[in-house]
Structure formats: structure tokens, C-alpha cells
């Protein structure tokens, strides 16, 4: 593998790369770092114990849906951290990007601990929840999809000076930032927050609000990074590579639809798999458009309530409307 260092652009390898913060080359990354720091929160600030009475009166189908979500969210947060540590951080030469990624990795760990807090509070079979991400075929298939991209980043160091290495870098970004965090996580969020729509698990809903707020920044960082790499490396902008990236997203939609059929096999009050899958197709269209593609499904958002029920984020216009209501400092004022 070549160990040469890229002299210009966001991609590069070298121990002396990214050691100077100023002048900032990518202001979007620098601003996202400050926003992420301002958004810092801790799981035990949420009084989940107050939701226990709600959990007790939920139906078996509702408890199944909640457990299924935790079975997926918990290991996936740690999987994202592996993708960042092995597949993104080492290949960037930008100090401001390194700062943001360090905060994002802390946030993924915090999300994992948040879901552990839910498992500790509600009478959920932890062993069954842990085993599901391997034992449920639709859930395991999603995990293997992600691992297939991460494996390239962990089993060998990419030659980031080559077209093939740059393509693998972009593939990993799309798999984790766009698909896992930008589609699959949001699909879970609409189910998690649907309980609050019926006046159930309101504190759990508040915890999910904070997770969603973090994920909105992760998604914004990832899409900005993909677009920056493509802009700085026009040799990547081929029809073949574009078709491959688009197909990745379409394949991910099919995996998510099968997963949602297992998540909601008979539906719960006000929600079924078809409804959530409609939202998945809507999300996929938005992510395709953000990457410069035409929409694939031309889907209408069936969950417009998400834009108002969750006051930390406007899903339709999240790039323009990151809410700062819960910031822990006032540096922007």
C-alpha cells in the first residue's frame, strides 16, 4: 500500500496531517462540532421510571415493538463507532473533521448507554433483546449489510490515493451515515415516537428526541463529507459509481421493509408495517435527492406529525432548521 500523503483536499493519511486547526478549511465541519458540543446531554437526565406505568398497560404487540427497536439500536450504535474509528477518521486530514468525529463517537457511546438505561428501567428480557440482532433474520441481514462495507476498512488499510480506495471510503460513508443513520435509524424513530403520539412513554420520547437531534447532525456531516469528497475528486463521478451508490440505497430500503414486517407483524394502534415502509421510501427519496439523484419512489411523507411532534428537528428541512432549544451553552448568542 502507498503511504504517501495527499497534499490538498479533505482526504489524506499521515501522522502529521490534521495537527493545525486554523485556518479552518471546512467551516461546515467546524460549526457542526460547536453545535454538537452545545447539544451535549446525559441519559439519566430523563426520568424514565415515570414511564413504567405506561409500559405495564401496553399490549404485547407494543412491548414487542419496543424490545425489537432496542435489539437493533443498541448494537448498531456501537457498529457506527467502529465505522467512524476504522473507516472515516484515519482517512481525513482535516482537524475540524477530526474534532467533530471525536464528538460524534462520544455521542454514539452515549446513545448506547441511553438504550442500556431503557433496558435497565423497563422489565425487558435483556438476553432476548441482545440475541435478536443475530437470531432474527431480517435484523441480522441489516447488520451483515453494514459489516460487509466495514470489513473492507478493517481488514486492510485503504490506499486513499487510488480511485478504488476513495470509492471504498465513499461506500462506507453511504452505508453508515446515509443508510444506517439517515434511513434505518429514522425509520425506528417514527415507531419509537409514535407511542408519545398516544400519550404513552413520554419520557422515553424525550430521550429519543435527544438522540434524533444528534443524528440530524451526524447525517448532515456525512452528506457534506460525501459531497466534498466527490467535488474534490471528479474522477469518482462516473455513471457506474453513481449507479452503484443509488442501488445501495434501494437495496437498503428492501432490507428495511422486511425488518419492519417483523417489527410490526400485526401492527399496533395507529401504526403498521405498510405505514412505516411508506415513511422509509419517503426518507430514501430525500437521501437520494441530497446526494444529487432523482427520487426513486416519489413517496409522500405519511408521518408529517414527526415534523411537529419532535420539536428538536424538522425532518423535511433539517438542513435549514436545526433547533437549539436544548443547548447547554449560549456561545451562539
TrEMBL record:
Coiled coil: none
Cofactor info, note text: Binds 2 iron ions per subunit.
The keyword Protein biosynthesis is assigned to this record: no
EC number: 1.17.4.1
First-level EC class: oxidoreductase
Alphabetical list of InterPro entries matching this protein: Ferritin-like_SF (IPR009078), RNR-like (IPR012348), RNR_small (IPR033909), RNR_small_fam (IPR000358)
SUPFAM superfamilies: Ferritin-like (SSF47240)
One Pfam short name: Ribonuc_red_sm
Keywords tagged on the record: Deoxyribonucleotide synthesis, Iron, Membrane, Metal-binding, Oxidoreductase, Transmembrane, Transmembrane helix
Family, per entry: Belongs to the ribonucleoside diphosphate reductase small chain family.
Function: Provides the precursors necessary for DNA synthesis. Catalyzes the biosynthesis of deoxyribonucleotides from the corresponding ribonucleotides.
Entry-linked NCBIfam families: PRK09614.1-5
Quaternary structure note: Tetramer of two alpha and two beta subunits.
Name this protein carries in UniProt: Ribonucleoside-diphosphate reductase subunit beta
Lineage: Bacteria, Bacillati, Actinomycetota, Actinomycetes, Propionibacteriales
